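batch job 7 of whatever, protein = GNAT family N-acetyltransferase
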Amino acid sequence: MKNKFSLEPCELDQNWDSFIATSPHGTPFVHSQFIALLDVKYHAYYCCKGNEKIAAVLLIVDEHEQRVVGHHDVIHDGIMHRNIDHLNRAQRHSELFAAQEYIAEYLAERYAQVTLKLHPAIQDIRAFLWVNYHNDGPKYAVTPRYTSVLELDEFAAPLSALEHSDNYNNSSVSRRQEIRYGIKKQVTLSESYDFTLFAHYYGLTMARQGIEISPAQLDTLAVRIKSLAQQGLLCMYQAHTSNQEIGSFATYLLQGDTAYYFYGANHPEMRDSHTGTAVLWQAFPLLAQKGVSKLDLEGINSPQRGWFKLSFGGNVEPYFHIRLDKTDA
């Protein structure tokens, strides 16, 4: 079976983006323009069975192009299988496993280190776990990660009352209280294009956590967010008080019917203004108007951020980080 497969190097171009758009594992993080804005070295392949493309593979590599190192803003990379809805269940399992088996073994031979961050929909990773299963060769290690996903279908039409919202009813007591306070105090949300102010707020947010980000880095962030918005890959919202003071920003990457929470920022002196909750909650109907039915809050893997995101009542979904190191490299 394996000799029927090949990995063919490719460019991140319109054909790539078209493949990603139809893949159940496609995300904005592997879109050609998203990667171009990172200015990183990468290797991209199509996994082919004969002349048929059955998966795409994106690897962020080091400067020597010998190690697959990933990037902190590329939340999901690695393998994106083709749409296989036309296959029955047994055929799906067979194709996914066979493609991953070939890719896993190829990467283990080609690179000194491999770091992959798979899409949550890729749940069967046995092919990686079985590399060098019967010998002492290097093996892939797997770390489970988690995210919270909200269903936004209910926001496609205006809600007559908060209590009619499943998302509201499944939120924590404190989050429901914050949502009500925000509405009562006339906190409002609007689409924002003030990318410079957003970057400034982000710097303040990080500084409050003891992380200093240079002005040059903040300028780069503002340019990148602006470019993604101009290309239709991202939208940004700002939450302001009844006095029109902006307290919070949130950016959301867009891919088909799914949005991904990306960067957020709050003014430290306005933490009690309820804008931090509103910039998410009030974004739900605005995203639904854009055709978004699912919001991935992108990571609940640290205690503080995790509990905040989970307080909106989303479902917990696991995904996998996979790593291989050659000790003799």
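notes: Residues 89-110 form the longest helix (22 residues).
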